[in-house]
What we know:
The complex is a heterodimer. In chain A, the strands form five sheets. In chain A, strands 3-6-7-9-10-13-14 form a seven-stranded mixed β-sheet, with no helix packed on it. Chain A has a seven-stranded antiparallel β-sheet with strand order 4-5-8-11-12-15-16, covered by helices on one side. A three-stranded mixed β-sheet of chain A has the order 18-21-20. Chain A is of the alpha+beta class. In chain A, a hairpin with a 2-residue loop joins strand 1 (105-106) and strand 2 (109-110). Chain A has seven helices and 21 strands. Chain A is 26% helix and 33% strand. Chain B is 71% helix and 0% strand. By secondary structure, chain B is mostly helical. Chains A and B meet through helix 1, helix 3 and helix 4 of A and helix 1, helix 3, helix 4, helix 5 and helix 7 of B.
Amino acid sequence: MERSGSAQLVNEEAARWVARIDSRPLDKQAKADLEKWLARDDRHRGALFRTLALLQAADGSGAIRSDVWEVFEPHAQVSEDAGPGLLSDREPLPSGPRMGRRRMLWAGAAVAATALPVAFLSGVLSGGSEGGANNIKTQVGQTAHVALEDGSLAVVNTASRLDVRQSPSLRSVRLDEGEAWFQVAKDATRPFVVSVGDVRVRAVGTAFSVRKRDDGADVQVTEGTVEVWTTAHSGTRLRVSAGTSTFVSEIHGVQELVKDPAEIERQLSWRDGVLQFDGNTLRQAADEFNRYNLVKLQIDPALGDERVIGRFNSGEPSKFAQVVATAFGAKVEKKKGRIEITKS
Amino acid sequence: MGHNGRLEVMQWVVREVLVHEPALRSWLRKVSDANDVEDVIQESYCRISNLDDISHIRNARAYLFTTAKMIVLGRVRRSRIVSIDVVADIESFNLPDDASNPEQIAIEKDRLNFVTNIIGNLPSRCRSIFLLRKMEGLSQREVAQRLGVPEHTVENDVAKGLRLIQQAIAETEEQAETSAERMTKHGTKWVSAAGQ
């Protein structure tokens, strides 16, 4: 009841703000108050937007003044310091099997990852939309949730490029760069096919991720079943089921199937802005961080084979470096565009 | 982005999104705590308000439902005490396909008028204000002059009217779910759609 009460209170406040906005231009004080109120809770922003829409529906006042829109402009930065601000859109995502969030300890230090805001993509969407086509692009460090027009959901990882085309008979996605996880809306009449170079992955109502590699693609299935093949051997299709991952080589086709749902869950933690390591080498961990950041980690070869366990915020390589330094008695040096970790 | 883009998003909400809110509320009541419905609705609109561009969205209903679904799942996961049934319910959720049924589309269009219908049921001065604004495009100040009341009275009535509109929409789905008879009392247009 309390929650409901508070949501109702938010609606009431929103109604008062909209009436105030509608009455006359906002003076400096009113604007500051409104901005403060909006910044306090995402729900305030949602309630205000909805109530403005209701006013417009009620009295057809289409010419809404620009001072109203100024308060809606998201703050420029969408990076880690955006805090719980307007654009913050972090949500854990649906995945197949629900794994307990494993708490991992590393060198005795518990490392808790804090949530990073993720920009709700659409703004990054560009290119022509004729024939249901869309280009989706993310920058380094950016993760994006994109609701596709058929009701499917794509969660796009760092530095990725996709071309989405939806026609009456086919939903096709071309992954040109990077990685994406898809939760496919059921539609038996329109197969959902992801192509990566010559590799093809086909799903009907399922969830899976595809990551482009130099000579093929990694496929990880979190729900249902997908079919994979390469264009050279389109007659040989292999089924990959939930909890299973595989690498499909453009030349050699499917290499091997590995059934390890926990591993998939760990690898897909990027959807929560988190990198999880479970006995990976420092070299591998640094490579992972470097996918997400412009500031690159450089690991001393003498330390490269040390193994790490832990959960980290993918956007905080320096925090990671600090923990490495403590754990292995290494030295951290920040230089332009990179962080060097050396054995001391 | 410019203000025009934001205005465009709002007009899209007015045109294509609000109308699906009752159906969304019905679904939300099934998969989440009734007390959370309003929160999820507010969060959903928050995300929509952050859209820079809506040209890539072909199906407003699918978009609204997917957005809300993600919010519900996020809440379920954060709550840590997770009922397996709830997650299964949410995850197996597919878009209700009745939106493509022509009859349903007609009903939705009728519902689109529900804001107009609600105005008809507002207290009298409140109703006059909304009607003067709608029919004659008067500002709050002009309405105040016309009715011979102070401006702040008009502002208060607009706030009150908006509050009643918010509540009426939230109740729409309850009516749709309970009984046709109850709905007929309200005399609203979409009443005839009850059984659906």
